[in-house]
Amino acid sequence: MEFDFTPVITYFPTLLQGLGVGLLVALVVAFMSIVGGLLVAVISVYVNKVVSWPLRFFIWLFMTTPLLLQLYFLYFGLGEWILIPAILVGILGLGFHYMAYNADIFIATIKAVSGGQYEASRSLGFGHIATIFYIIVPQALIRSIPQLGNNMILMVKDTSVLSAIGVAELVYASQYAISVTFRPFEFFIVIAVMYYVVNIFMELGQAWLERMTAYRR
Amino acid sequence: MDFNLMVEISPLLIKAAWITIDISVRSLFFGFFVACGLVFLQSFRFAPIRWFARGYISVIRGTPYFVQLLLVFYGGPSIGFRLDPITCGVFVGAFNIGAYMSEAIRGSIESVDSGQAEAARSLGFGRAQTLVSIVLPQAAALMIRSVGVLAIVVVKNSSLVSIISVVELTYQAQRLIGSTYKPLEIFTLTALIYIIIVYAVMGIIELAYRRAMRYTTL
Amino acid sequence: MSTENQTDTPDTPMVEIRDVYKRFGDLEVLKGINLTVNRGKIISIIGPSGSGKSTLLRSVNHLEVIEKGSIFLEGVQVNRPDLKGLAFERHINHIRQNMGMVFQHFNLFPHLSTIDNVTLAPRKLKGMEAKAAREWGMELLNRVGLAEKADVFPNWLSGGQKQRVAIARALAMKPKVMLFDEATSALDPELVEEVNLVMRSLAEEHMTMLIVTHEMGFARDVSDWAMFMDGGVVVEECAPQKLFSNPDQERTRNFLKKHLQG
């Protein structure tokens, strides 16, 4: 049994391209899931039960069922109405999935900001919405950083699942190369290493961000 | 919503659900031993053993479960390691969740005030005895909660085994969506089954743990 | 209404509280309170915890919604049962911009630096330019003796420093009246004096102030009028020299006996 990594080197540009697609998707999903999650959290904390109850139900639903099932549902469900590219389905699916996870965190951190903060802001003459925007949300965001970082690290790893619906990310990019070179072990090892490196950088980034914001908590 | 269709397909989904349950429960069961092993290795005084455990946990947590699954299933045979798809799902599932679970267990043990262990040692308890009769019972509540969260992860991870053509719940749901073109009905039913499984598994863990604690505290 | 000692300014009173009632569930905390605060006057409200003194102060800022009666700021009604929804929101925001409130637990915004805590309101609510706001903020921080802490975050400040910043923050909107809700109660004893000093300096500048406090000595020294509350009613009110040395009511005497130390 000997290993041969030369095919991996030959197809390395393809892999890098796949990695690039995966990271690009992750970037869009990070933006969508953080902004969307914040919006969902603010609405479900501050708006009446009629609106917040369905939102909390969807958060719970997205958190207790598998991503892949949600992706299939979106892929075939949307496919009935319109023809949209797989990458868009992937972004939406992953985006909604992590929007639910992030909203769950934001709800907890928004509630953790003390009532005194709200009162102090109102006593200065800020309105309800201005107080949420200038005082509550920034503090909730800072408190959310550690858990938010964990979610985003999980999310980047989950981009690999998007290959199942045909998004041309890293795993998908390797499929063709494996089918012609018959070297699955070598390719998957290299892919794992690539994910691991990305993961290390994300953990460093998370630690840095936590350090940078610790004094504002 | 087409309720007739939902009634019609539910036996198929329930049959597939048993595969999901089988993979999830076995992954959790073996994963627990992997986790205990990793916690044990990290208590060694000989540093390289600790480094090995830390490195293993770091690599498992730093790479996607999906890639681990593909590596073992497709890459394994080329180093003479051949597993049938379901066994492969259980194998990778257990070794994956074991890494996460060991961190959860370690975290809950570390959350117990160190004064507790000192007090026990000062009474003459040994290291192992202190752990079993003083520290673990106090760490139990937190441990149950974090292992319960991991149970959800395991059940959700098992859906990825569909990619190596195990006909579990997600695979069956995808096949049915493809043949009936009724994604909403099938998604609703499948989601419902997943939710039932998740809560059942979490319930079993809590029960098993409570039973175990009855013996350890004595 | 007892206004005999406060008639030296003929114009409209700064704050007027008329027959105010407030209850929390079954508990009546304010049972018909009246008080007139004239421009430039300093009123201290003392009383045991649960007497309703803090609730009264918070009602002036509409942090508590009163059930009956009315409160006026310079002749403008604060509580307006006739206004609903957004109209009331706009009204109360405008009213509050003219009142400075200082809380027992400071409530500084931890995500903003000291100077930003002070200048947030003038920048966002009055549209003050960043540069002008910083100058104004520095002037205020200077007044409370904390100019060198301008770019420090609140978590690095001591309790006394935090409260001084909170006072500067409340002053930033040039309020017509300052409300102090047990401003020194959460502080370690050795930090009380630095906050009292800042409050004294405001008194010298003839800021209208309504002070709820446990500091009997400070209340006696600084205020023009003192009020003792117990069980949701005003038991006694008069000039502080009289209230603290020779009160008419038995309940006041008992309370002071327990709390007066120098």
TrEMBL record, chain A:
The chain crosses the membrane at residues 20-45, 57-75, 81-103, 124-142, 187-209. One of its GO terms (biological process) is amino acid transport. It comes from the Bacteria. Keywords: Amino-acid transport, Cell membrane, Membrane, Transmembrane, Transmembrane helix, Transport. Residues 19-206 form the ABC transmembrane type-1 domain. One of its GO terms (molecular function) is transmembrane transporter activity. The keyword Transmembrane applies. The keyword Membrane applies. GO terms for cellular component: ATP-binding cassette (ABC) transporter complex. It is a multi-pass membrane protein. Pfam families: BPD_transp_1 (PF00528). It is found in: Cell inner membrane; Cell membrane. Belongs to the binding-protein-dependent transport system permease family. HisMQ subfamily. NCBIfam families: HEQRo_perm_3TM (TIGR01726). This is Amino acid ABC transporter membrane protein 2, PAAT family. It comes from Neptunomonas antarctica.
From TrEMBL, chain B:
The chain crosses the membrane at residues 12-41, 53-73, 186-209. GO terms for biological process: amino acid transport. Pfam families: BPD_transp_1. GO terms for cellular component: ATP-binding cassette (ABC) transporter complex. Belongs to the binding-protein-dependent transport system permease family. HisMQ subfamily. This is Amino acid ABC transporter membrane protein 1, PAAT family. PROSITE patterns: ABC_TM1. Part of the binding-protein-dependent transport system for glutamine; probably responsible for the translocation of the substrate across the membrane. InterPro entries: AA_ABC_transptr_permease_3TM (IPR010065), ArtM/GltK/GlnP/TcyL/YhdX-like (IPR043429), MetI-like (IPR000515), MetI-like_sf (IPR035906). One of its GO terms (molecular function) is transmembrane transporter activity. Keywords: Amino-acid transport, Cell membrane, Membrane, Transmembrane, Transmembrane helix, Transport. It is a multi-pass membrane protein. It is found in: Cell inner membrane; Cell membrane. Residues 17-205 form the ABC transmembrane type-1 domain.
Automatic annotation (TrEMBL), chain C:
It comes from the Bacteria. SUPFAM superfamilies: P-loop containing nucleoside triphosphate hydrolases. Residues 15-256 form the ABC transporter domain. Gene3D superfamilies: P-loop containing nucleotide triphosphate hydrolases (3.40.50.300). GO terms for cellular component: plasma membrane. It is found in: Cell inner membrane. Keywords: Amino-acid transport, ATP-binding, Cell membrane, Membrane, Nucleotide-binding, Transport. GO terms for molecular function: ABC-type amino acid transporter activity; ATP binding; ATP hydrolysis activity. It is a peripheral membrane protein. Its main location: membrane. Belongs to the ABC transporter superfamily. This is Amino acid ABC transporter ATP-binding protein, PAAT family. It comes from Neptunomonas antarctica.
